[in-house]
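Problem 12. The chain below contains 295 residues. Write out its predicted structure in token notation.
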Amino acid sequence: PYVYRGGQDDYMIVDLETWKVTFEGIVGSQEDANAKYNATDYKTKKLVLRKVEPGTYTIGHSELTKTASDGRDGINTPHTVTVPEGTCYYMSIYECSVAQYKRIMGTDASSIDTNAMATVSWNSLRNSAGANTEIAGDKTNTANFFVRFNGLAGYTFDLPTEEMWEIAARAGCRTCHLWGDEWSSDYSKYIQSSIKVAVGGKLPNNWGLYDVFGNVWEWTRDNYYKGDLAGVQSDGLTPIVSATGVDASYIPYRGAGTNGRYTNGYAWCELSMRHQQTKTYYGKEVGFRLSYIMP
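Solution.
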């Protein structure tokens, strides 16, 4: 079970050459940690995840957008979700890069491509496993990302739930964007559907996560709930799999990668924006971020 390590486990580091997993605390400030981990090795040869502590968090649309009705997918009015006491979770500070993906899948152990990985379907990442199914590791698997990675690293990594994603993306903020209510290109990169950019090129949020708004969209673990997320699931670590209004053939993704156009209105480019696609979809605008729930 999760045991607080006195601030010595703020980061989880996976070495993608030795597959050794270590934990590190923040030395100095969050800004010092950002400077340390915003380096090529941590986008190619290693994988870095940031801890999210147990507690109750408010997520959902900001005051600016909570009553907007402009055609966006999936309403998400303000509500609280909980990371239960006795556990915590980790979220990768970057969207998975091409180099990290290729090193893990064994297709190019020397890749230094720091662009966000895309053109990967939810099914290919998770071996078509159900949203509430933990993915067993098998390092001989060459087709399914999480099956292979869990076998190599010896930990059960997965996609984050929608709630896990937004808790980590907001990092305590309640504004439209992670930096405030007005647009800023210092934190976000809007991309065209055929283009992706290097991870970590913009400013991070308050917990040191990069590109939570912009670059590629990011798959989550849940089945898609068509209604308002408020009141559906209070435990942020549990994926939504069955409730009235759930469509198990669709998966939500977050991060406003290509539809996050400021000209479409605030609600189309905020942290609570939801979108969805089929489990077999592998568009050039959709990537992913890894998570790990501490048992």
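Discussion. The longest strand covers residues 46-52. Students who got a different answer should revisit the alignment rule from Section 12.3.
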